[in-house]
Amino acid sequence: MSKTLFASRGNLVGLLLLAVLLLVVFPLVFDIFRLNLVGKYLTYAFVALGLVLCWGNAGILSLGQGVFFGLGGYCMAMFLKLEASSPENTKIQSTPGIPDFMDWNQVTALPWFWEPFHSLSFSLVAVVVVPALFAFVIGLAMFKRRVGGVYFAIITQAIAAILTILIVGQQGYTGGINGITDLRTLKGWDIRTDHAKLILYFINGGLLLGALLLAQFVQQTKLGRLLVAMRDKEDRVRFSGYDVSSFRIFVFCFAAGLAAIGGAMFTLQVGFMSSSFIGIVPSIEMVIYCAVGGRSSLIGAVYGTLLINFGRSLLSESFPQLWQFAMGGLFIAIVMVFPDGLAGLYQTYAAPLIARRFRSGRGGGRIAAASTGSRVH
């Protein structure tokens, strides 16, 4: 009982410290340019949170999470692009009222699947529903046939490659390799101003903390315990009468939804979305974020994402050619030396030291109180 209480208290303290760092320290320390970069990094943390549940807890390694990140981003970008492509803004085009890349590719009418994205409400729902539905189809096809392990990882990697090729090839409908760019306003609100970027940063940070709480809730429920049991002893869980495939489908769709929210916030903060965030390389990088933070730690996943991306910025500014080598070296070091990532380092070294200090402080206080009491008597 006491151990559980201490763990809950530790999680609460960790969450509060993270909230102070994101919502107080960073806005005070960084200028708007750097703060917007941090906001971009935090959008990747949504993917890392989903991977903790999907890979760390359930043992499902997906190398295609960039697919769901990109789909969420494209759903938001389609709404923003349609708003920026009003007849007044596009009157110099051959066909006013459609996105510029469609006009360049001689598309003369807005495609039917773009029409619903005139509505912000539909777009916000689609941000989560479209990627989650796509994940459901993949999960149903794979997990019902008991496809898992390295085979599932390879399949998700192939899906990321196929979707990238599809988006690039359909340039007239998707923007191709350049993606959907020149996004300006959200319901008339200019998202390119410094004030808008500051507000979007706080919205992003609040959503991330909310997603972390939701993921933590899932971990602490019976479902979360079943996910871990499935990872360790799948046959025993199946023989106990549970439908393992249904649980796997759920956690895979849940992770896809989190990744999609991150993609939508990325589009809002950065101002574009392209196929470069859907392919194999960004998907593998997102797995590295999770591994560095600790694949069983939600808070560690956020710190791992920040650490990797801060390192990328610092190294790429000074040594742009060395960054990929540094990324590979860091991943190898984590896997071989610190398999539990930053969270494992904290649990192994920092947490026992803090606990000893805490106990010694309380013990010292009791001794001082006892000696004071004896002097009074």
Automatic annotation (TrEMBL):
Signal peptide start and end residues: none
Listed transmembrane segments: 12-30, 42-64, 120-143, 150-169, 198-218, 239-266, 286-310, 322-339
GO molecular function: branched-chain amino acid transmembrane transporter activity
Main location: membrane
CDD domains per the UniProt record, alphabetical: TM_PBP1_LivM_like
Cellular compartments annotated: Cell membrane
InterPro entries, alphabetized: ABC_transp_permease, ABC_transptr_urea_perm_UrtC, LivM-like
Protein topology in the membrane: Multi-pass membrane protein
Gene Ontology CC entries for this record: plasma membrane
Protein keywords: Cell membrane, Membrane, Transmembrane, Transmembrane helix
Protein name as catalogued: Urea ABC transporter permease subunit UrtC
